[in-house]
Inverse folding.
């Protein structure tokens, strides 16, 4: 028997022995970004670099009252949801119940994500505080504080439930007891809509109980996950005395699994919002833009970047600020910086994200982070991976003097014939999608499904993403 086993091992291909020691990343034809070390094997004189979004000039945007806003991309327009109040300047210190009673959800729309209009929807009687008539939800106690919709992409979802939303708060312990008796329990309530404008409750009771939240006073966002085949919700929770993030999943948007605390905080760090969403060009990767809250610095806030893949913990590759408060006092005011839900393409090579106060920031597509190399040169060698496709596409940028070359290696790190570094045509310029070419052409289909490594030799260059494409 021992002899037979030994013979069986000897008959196995060499790469199968390597597999036992090193996992192989199966990426298929998915786009992979360098926001984490999922594909990173070795970085030699290169580094993962977080890029800074650029603040764009204001073009009369909606100006959310409060911290929480959502920007969705429908088939033919952008939809902006934000909080308003029937009494301008109202505050919870003037009365907790009346404050939340006066909150409403307002709506704006745009063809390009830059220029916005306030449509007169006629859903509610005219209100002097909102003469534009752009109220989509009113008279939903606690829900309008953080009403957060999404477009449901689950296959087979009824047209009447194409849009879904969560909203609500939890009562603080031993406070507002009489209010709770009259109004019912807190928690996150579910709403549905066919068009994102006309909303109705999915059921009367909260779908996520108030005991989970402590106190849900944040933007608690749900979405359908293609990779997990489930609804996923990231929500606010106090964890060991700090504002933190928890997560739950559901198959029907009504019954949710016991929550998991994500433990995303660094020591002594408050994360005020989860702001976690699938990245629209690679939905198996979740982008998170939480607000870091500095209670002892006048409650100043800035925006961080984190990522996650499915149920895995958040990746904190980058601990520095993604968007700083900026020059001037406005950005340093109490809780002045909150990212809206929604990262969307707003130009051929541009994507936008939005902050409170109507601010819009831009990055290149896939451009949150990159593998960066200096002019002197550096190397990225990926982990073992398998792909499906015929061509290798990269999103990259070089200086006028810089370049990138790509080599495909076998499991032992040997260059494969026809795909060596010397065979690769030097790549320079700046492209969202550029096909890598070797002397014999671009076709890599002979390697599809086989474990390989990619070796990038780079000079004064950034590599943002890669993807294997099928034959065209």
């Amino acid at each position: 028997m021992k002899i037979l086993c030994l013979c069986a091992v000897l008959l196995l291909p060499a790469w199968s022995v390597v597999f036992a020691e090193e996992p192989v990343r199966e990426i298929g034809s998915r786009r992979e970004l360098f926001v984490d070390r999922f594909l990173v094997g070795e970085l030699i004189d290169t580094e993962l670099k977080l890029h800074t979004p650029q603040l764009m000039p204001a073009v009369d945007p909606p100006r959310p009252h409060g911290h929480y806003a959502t920007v969705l991309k429908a088939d033919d327009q952008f939809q902006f949801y934000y909080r308003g109040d029937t009494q301008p300047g109202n505050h919870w210190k003037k009365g907790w119940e009346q404050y939340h009673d006066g909150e409403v959800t307002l709506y704006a729309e745009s063809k390009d994500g830059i220029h916005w209009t306030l449509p007169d929807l006629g859903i509610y009687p005219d209100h002097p505080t909102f003469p534009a008539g752009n109220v989509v939800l009113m008279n939903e106690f606690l829900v309008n504080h953080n009403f957060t919709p999404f477009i449901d992409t689950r296959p087979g979802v009824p047209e009447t439930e194409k849009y879904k939303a969560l909203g609500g708060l939890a009562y603080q312990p031993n406070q507002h007891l009489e209010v709770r008796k009259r109004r019912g329990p807190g928690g996150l309530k579910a709403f549905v809509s066919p068009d994102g404008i006309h909303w109705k409750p999915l059921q009367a009771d909260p779908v996520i109980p108030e005991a989970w939240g402590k106190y849900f006073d944040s933007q608690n966002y749900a979405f359908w996950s293609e990779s997990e085949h489930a609804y996923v919700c990231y929500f606010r929770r106090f964890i060991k005395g700090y504002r933190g993030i928890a997560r739950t999943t559901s198959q029907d948007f009504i019954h949710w699994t016991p929550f998991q605390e994500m433990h995303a905080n660094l020591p002594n760090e408050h994360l005020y919002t989860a702001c976690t969403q699938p990245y629209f060009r690679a939905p198996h990767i979740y982008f998170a833009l939480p607000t870091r809250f500095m209670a002892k610095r006048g409650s100043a806030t800035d925006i961080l970047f984190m990522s996650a893949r499915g149920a895995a913990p958040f990746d904190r590759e980058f601990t520095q600020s993604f968007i700083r408060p900026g020059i001037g006092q406005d950005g340093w005011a109490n809780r002045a910086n909150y990212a809206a839900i929604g990262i969307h393409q707003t130009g051929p090579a541009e994507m936008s994200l939005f902050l409170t106060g109507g601010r819009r920031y831009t990055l290149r597509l896939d451009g949150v982070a990159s593998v960066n190399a200096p002019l002197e040169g550096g190397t990225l060698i990926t982990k073992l991976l398998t792909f499906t496709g015929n061509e290798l596409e990269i999103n990259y940028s070089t200086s006028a003097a810089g370049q990138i070359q790509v080599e495909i290696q076998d499991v032992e790190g040997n260059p494969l014939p026809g795909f060596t570094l010397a065979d690769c045509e030097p790549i320079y310029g700046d492209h969202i999608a550029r096909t890598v070419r070797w002397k014999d052409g671009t076709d890599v289909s002979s390697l599809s499904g086989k474990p390989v490594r990619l070796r990038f030799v780079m000079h004064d260059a950034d590599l943002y993403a890669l993807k294997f494409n099928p034959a065209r």
